[in-house]
């Protein structure tokens, strides 16, 4: 699948679906961000469904709201509002026939001066809050048949819940495997200096989805494979070993690429074709 952004969330999502189709992709990940998602329930799904059908693209996954949501919030009203917003995105995706919602189970403070938000004295409580939020969403998963894929998120120098596959597996041990799994963002694993192949094996049968990106700096680079240090030969082998059959998304940012948005789209389409024909492996940058 393909998810291409230019660093902002105020674009035309309908046009973006058509652009994805034009590159030859038949699946995409939608994003529940931007002006259309100010309403808790999200936008009218009918124009999306019509465009997807006309374009021959399936919205396998949707990324839940995250700039306005903190499921681990210490403020109960904020936590519950986040649960409702994620639930709205789940119901939206169900109307499109999608399968999986990508969820940030922890968020950032609404007050930018409140850093560091997570500390050694509150990270345990934040984890408990996140667990309550995900448990609150299971009835919605049962209602919609949309499953929750919790994404690993880097702490960037301060403690943050659920940064690794091991932490995520422990977190969801008492939650139903049918409805709660993992989205492995391999760029986030890179920032934590973790071996992405080992992380995939730890996630194993709970691995629902992948966010695939590359990089080499201390930032979350979101570059196409081949522009960084990650070993896709080893990662592809690990995915084969665990019989992974979930959604995988090339999650790249045009603003970090040396070329244009069009260059990124062409490069990602070439990677898609290579991996479809040969299996996932290392890529030489164009």
Please describe what this structure looks like:
By secondary structure, the protein is of the alpha/beta class. It has one domain (2-278): Divalent-metal-dependent TIM barrel enzymes (TIM Barrel, Alpha-Beta Barrel). Helix content is 39%, strand content 15%. The protein has nine helices and eight strands. The chain has an eight-stranded parallel beta sheet with strand order 1-8-7-6-5-4-3-2. α3 packs parallel to α4. The longest helix is centred in the middle third of the chain and has 22 residues, at 123-144. It starts with a strand and ends in an 8-residue tail after the last helix. The relative contact order is 0.12.
Describe the structure concisely for a colleague.
39% of the residues lie in helices and 15% in strands. With 286 residues, the protein is α/β, with parallel strands linked by helices.
């Amino acid at each position: 699948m393909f998810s291409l952004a230019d660093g902002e969330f105020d674009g035309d999502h309908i046009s973006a679906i058509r652009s994805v189709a034009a590159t030859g992709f038949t699946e995409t990940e939608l994003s529940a961000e931007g002006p259309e998602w100010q309403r808790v329930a999200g936008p009218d799904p009918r124009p999306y469904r019509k465009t997807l059908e006309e374009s021959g693209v399936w919205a396998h996954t949707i990324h839940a709201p995250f700039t306005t949501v903190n499921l681990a919030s210490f403020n109960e009203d904020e936590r519950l509002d986040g649960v409702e917003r994620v639930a709205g995105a789940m119901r939206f995706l169900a109307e499109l026939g999608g399968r999986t919602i990508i969820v940030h189970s922890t968020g950032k403070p609404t007050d930018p001066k409140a850093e560091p938000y997570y500390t050694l004295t509150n990270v345990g409580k934040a984890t408990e809050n996140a667990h309550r939020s995900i448990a609150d969403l299971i009835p919605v998963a049962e209602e919609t048949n949309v499953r929750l894929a919790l994404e690993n998120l880097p702490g960037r120098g301060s403690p943050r819940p659920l940064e690794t596959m091991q932490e995520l597996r422990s977190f969801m041990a008492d939650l139903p495997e049918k409805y709660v799994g993992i989205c492995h963002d391999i760029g986030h694993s890179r920032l934590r200096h973790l071996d992405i192949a080992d992380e995939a094996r730890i996630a194993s049968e709970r691995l629902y989805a992948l966010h695939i990106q590359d990089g080499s700096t201390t930032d979350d680079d979101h570059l196409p494979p081949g522009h960084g240090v990650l070993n896709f030969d080893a990662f592809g082998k690990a995915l084969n070993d665990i019989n992974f059959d979930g959604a995988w998304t090339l999650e790249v940012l045009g603003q970090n690429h040396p070329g244009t948005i069009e260059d990124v789209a062409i490069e990602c389409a070439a990677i898609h074709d290579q991996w479809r024909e040969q299996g996932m492996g290392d890529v030489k940058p164009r």
